[in-house]
Each structure stands twice: as structure tokens, then as C-alpha cells.
Design a protein that fits this description.
- This protein is of the alpha/beta class.
- It is about 35% helix and about 20% strand.
- It has helices at about 15-25, 45-50, 70-90, 105-115, 135-145, 160-170, 185-195, 235-250; strands spanning about 5-10, 25-30, 55-60, 90-95, 120-125, 145-150, 175-180, 200, 205-210, 230-235.
- The protein has an 8-stranded parallel barrel with strand order 1-2-3-4-5-6-7-8, surrounded by 6 helices. A two-stranded antiparallel ribbon has the order 9-10.
- Helix 1 (about 15-25) links the parallel strand 1 (about 5-10) and strand 2 (about 25-30).
- The radius of gyration is 18 Å and the shape is globular.
């Protein structure tokens, strides 16, 4: 795959990381709990993935499920995680903090950027729930952020094509627009033809059946919408198909 294109796979296990890289993903977003949109991974997971694969690793920093407006205590945790992963050698970080009015919390973002040092930084999908996306994009550029991960403020990036096109045009190469949510080979073709975007983010997941032979339906460990006997893992074929599609794109 040409270096001018990017396929970033978000992974929450060593197995998924190995599958994604073998299939051709050229960057990983390491996280935990993909089923709830991702949270900060453990340092142990990061270190094991680093041992197992040779690629660029960005770490999602998100202390909990839910919105991106954090209490002082939550932000202290977030800042501590930024310092820990910077010390651990993460190549980049994926961050985002909003104020109650839906604007970017630039003060806290600056604190995170300082803690992370000169690493590649992605503003994550907090962007997709901000109030004024074009304003926030300019603020992200001014902060020195490298990438915005966005679905165009819709549930999927295909649905968000209109805003993705506006963002890509206005960015004019000053910041990378990384299209994410619902990404597969067909979505990449559709989005590229409409916007010219060349960076894509996907999980490419499949659901595996648990190895457990004894099972109970009487207990839920978390959200009832998710079965304890479903295991999420990257599907190598979905990644390969996406890489193949990206490789076929023409300027």
C-alpha cells in the first residue's frame, strides 16, 4: 500500500493486532472495550502488542464510556495515562476533551499535548459530538494536532460524506482527515470518490463464539445487549479487502 494512504485498524487484543498487521493495516489504534467505543488500554496490553507486531502504535486515551466532558478527577486519570504511555514509547495518542457547551476544551487539550510530547496526535470522535466542527478543526490545527478521526458527525462515515467533503477541502492538507465508522472496502470507494480522503480507520471485526461449553443466561457482567459468550476479533479478510481497495485508488 502506498505510503500516501493510511488504513488504521483499532484493536483491543493481541490477536486482533497480529491479524490486522498481517492483513496490511499500516497503523494500529490500541484500545480496550471496543464494544463500547473504546477506552484506554492497559500498559500490559500495549507492551505485548509492541512485542508481537512491528508497526506504528497509537493509543486511545479515554478513561470511561460516555461523553467527553470530564470531571477534575477523571481528567487527572486521563493526564496520568498520557504520561504513562508517553514513557512507555507510544508512537502517538488519540485524545479529545470537550466543554459542556460542545466546544473543544483547549486548555485541557494543551495539558495532554504537553504530557505526550512530540508525538503524533489524533483528535478522536469527540469531534463528532462537538457543536461547531469547522471551528474545532481550526482549533485542532492551531494546537498542532495531526489528525481528526471523524464520521462526519453521523453514525457512519458514508452518511457523513457531506461534512467529510467540507472538512477535507477546508483542511487543505493542514491536518489529516481520517474517516471512521462503518468503514469497509465499499465504504472506502464511496467516500474516496466523493471526498478524495485517503485515510481510513476501521475495526473490521467479526464475532467469535466463546470456547465455554458450560453457559448460563442468568447473569450479565455488563450491558445486557452484549453476550459474555461473544468474542470480538479483527477479521483479516475485511482488512485485506480494505487495503486492496485503498491500493487501487487513483488521484
Amino acid at each position: 500500500m502506498d505510503d500516501q494512504y493510511r488504513l488504521e485498524a483499532c484493536v483491543d487484543s493481541v490477536a486482533s493486532a497480529k491479524i490486522a498487521v498481517a492483513a496490511g493495516a499500516n497503523r494500529l489504534e490500541v484500545c480496550a472495550n471496543l464494544m463500547i467505543g473504546g477506552t484506554t488500554p492497559s500498559l500490559s496490553l500495549f507492551h505485548e502488542i509492541r512485542k508481537q507486531v512491528d508497526t506504528t502504535l497509537h493509543v486511545l486515551l479515554r478513561p470511561r464510556f460516555g461523553d467527553f466532558c470530564y470531571s477534575d478527577e477523571e481528567f487527572a486519570v486521563l493526564l496520568g495515562e498520557a504520561e504513562q504511555f508517553a514513557a512507555a514509547g507510544a508512537d502517538g495518542a488519540v485524545i479529545g476533551v470537550l466543554l459542556p457547551d460542545g466546544s473543544l476544551d483547549r486548555e485541557r487539550m494543551e495539558h495532554l499535548l504537553s504530557a505526550l510530547g512530540h508525538r503524533s496526535i489524533t483528535l478522536h470522535r469527540a469531534f463528532d459530538v462537538c457543536q461547531h466542527p469547522m471551528v474545532v478543526m481550526e482549533q485542532a490545527i492551531a494546537l498542532g494536532i495531526d489528525t481528526i478521526l471523524t464520521s462526519g458527525q453521523k453514525n457512519t462515515a458514508v452518511e457523513g460524506i457531506s461534512l467529510l467533503r467540507q472538512l477535507s477541502t477546508a483542511a487543505a492538507g493542514r491536518i489529516d482527515i481520517l474517516a471512521g465508522s462503518g468503514i469497509d472496502a465499499q465504504a472506502i470507494e464511496t467516500i474516496y470518490q466523493a471526498t478524495g480522503i485517503t485515510s481510513y480507520h476501521m475495526s473490521g471485526k467479526k464475532i467469535l463464539d466463546s470456547q465455554m461449553t458450560y453457559r448460563t443466561t442468568e447473569v450479565h457482567m455488563g450491558l445486557e445487549a452484549f453476550s459474555e459468550y461473544d468474542i470480538w476479533q479483527t477479521d483479516g479478510q475485511k482488512i485485506k479487502d480494505a487495503v486492496s481497495k485503498i491500493s487501487s485508488l487513483k488521484h
